Amino acid sequence: MTNTAIPGAPGETLESPATAKAMAGGIKLRRYGSWYVAEHRLRSMRSYLQTMIATGIGTPVLYLYAMGVGLATLVDADQGQGLDKVSYLIFVAPALICSAALTIATEEFSYPIMLGFKWNPTFFGMNAAGLQGGQIINGVTYSVIIRLVVQSSVYYLFMLLFHAIPSPLGWLSIFVAVLTGTAIGTLLMAYATRLEEDKGQFNYIMRFGIIPLTLFSGTFFPLAALPTWLHWIGWISPLWHGTELARVFAFNYPEPIWLTVIHVLYLIVLTWVGWWLARRLAIRRLNK
Amino acid sequence: MCLVQLWNKCALLLIAFIFVPSPSIPVVKATELVKKYKEFSAVDGISFEIASGESFGFLGPNGAGKSTTMRMIGAVSTRTSGELSVVGLDPNNYGPEIRSQLGVVPQSDNLDTELRVRENLIVYGRYFGLGRSFLSSKADELLEFAQLKDKAKERIDDLSGGMKRRLTIARALINDPRILLLDEPTTGLDPQARHILWDRLFRLKEQGTTLILTTHYMDEAEQLCDRLVVIDKGKIMAEGSPASLIRKYSSREVLELRFGSEHNAKVAKKVDGIGERVEVLPDRILIYSENGEATLKQITDLGLNPLTSLVRRSSLEDVFLRLTGRSLIE
């Protein structure tokens, strides 16, 4: 039997054709595994495609109409020039796109993770088929990012239709919204990866975490309108950072450059920390 | 050298090539394999080899360490110590490579309930990087094999337990695996579904697929395994073919007697010395002998009249009882 060096495995030797076949079989898995998971997740999303389309179109139409035609009339009349020298619709639209992305990210990074690990343990099937824990988390994240990009793009189109984006850089709010979603979503994914049993924790997170965050993150009114002792909620809230950043791109929002940089860095760091934690926890959970 | 001598030499070489078996390289080799969860040893220093094309079983009760061993072979669980090689590679370093050559049928089905039957096969095939057009025809072929062609567009939740199991096996074959790992493949299935599954597994065995399975069903082990290890509390108690294990650890026949649960223990003292060995279980007495009918006559000659009596051939259950003093299904 001839011994041949295995590519990429210093010191190891090839024992048989079976070993060589295995080495060849592993190349694609290691290289594209994350995308195979993303493909699976996107296929699974088709089972609730109708809901996705309904919320994807219904949410921007309803919110922009309610805010732009309803509430905006009152606010603009009361404030004269609206808020921050723009109409209320223009002020609130960047917050709405970020908030919508946050809601989707919260859904996609919580229950589907619990589903894959616990209720319908497909992640164990993926792992048995050769995909690694980190790839599974990557794949889920990619698929959610794709959904967020599509959803936020649709939202952006409706914002254009409602004349809610005066700046030519407004399209960047699509990516700010995605980043806002992942900043909270990946942390939630890490939590879901660790969770052995759902005793309503996700409900609590939604009711006492996400919804209050939406109310106190400078979404519907500037953070400055809140008492000073509540400002910290905005400072730690990814939604506030996302909303402020989206406003910078959507209209001439007065903000120092250093603060804009902090918004970007804060969202990126949170996304990275959540992603990294989820990968580590998934690897540990799958290796029983 | 004359032509006749040359011919003879060639003929001898040809005969040697055809009939002398080449040393078979094990597809799985474990040496002193250990898996610990904190202080508890789920697998406690087991060693075994599995040859290519062999049908190999781990027989033991629940909690014996069978599934843990399977997970280590399947390269999804890191061993605590010992050596393990699967298709010549160390699972700790080459998990994806090894898993690309495996088909895995887990103890609990993990089919994706959000996808239809055929989609489950295609999505699983994509995990191995197989092309969509190849998978389309492969999925049809496997649905035929699993007798599920008419269920291709059904929801997973609409399938029976046996159908789900067959689909899981079909899914495990999507990458034409060199080794098929089956963890308790027929647990929870009715007899008819079990026999259909066994038939499918036989076909795979005939095609040369290496089957590695765990079971606590002795009939399954006898039906499917060329060779098996009896495992209990993480240790290997015995190893061999089903027939050789029965020959070594049991008699040819077993006489099962029931005198009523309150009387079995008392009667056991009276039948002591009859047959090769007597085992007293809570619900019955087992007498091991070469001729069950003759032994039964000895019992009735003693004036003992059991409520029921049954003469059967020895099984792996008896081997397990002999080795561990416990029944396989408790």
Structure, explained:
The complex is a heterodimer of chains A (288) and B (330). Chain A is an all-alpha fold and 288 residues long. Chain A has one domain (33-286). Chain A is 74% helix and 0% strand. Chain A contains eleven helices and no strands. Chain A is elongated and about 80 Å long. Helix content of chain B is 38%, strand content 25%. Chain B is built from twelve helices and 13 strands. Chain B has a six-stranded mixed beta sheet, sandwiched between helices. In chain B, helix 4 (117-127) packs across helix 5, helix 4 (117-127) runs parallel beside helix 6 and helix 9 (242-249) crosses helix 12 (316-324). The longest helix of chain B has 17 residues, at 3-19. Chain B starts with a helix and ends in a 6-residue tail after the last helix. Chains A and B meet through helix 1 and helix 5 of A and helix 3 and helix 4 of B.
Biggest sheet layout of chain A: none
Superfamily (CATH H level) name of the largest domain in chain B: P-loop containing nucleotide triphosphate hydrolases
Number of strands of chain A: 0
SS-derived structural category of chain A: mainly alpha
**Intertermini distance of chain B:** 71 Å
**Gap between N and C termini of chain A:** 36 Å
Binned, the helix content of chain B reads: 25-40%
Number of helices of chain A: 11
Overall 3D shape of chain A: elongated
Strand order of the largest sheet of chain B: 5-6-7-3-8-9
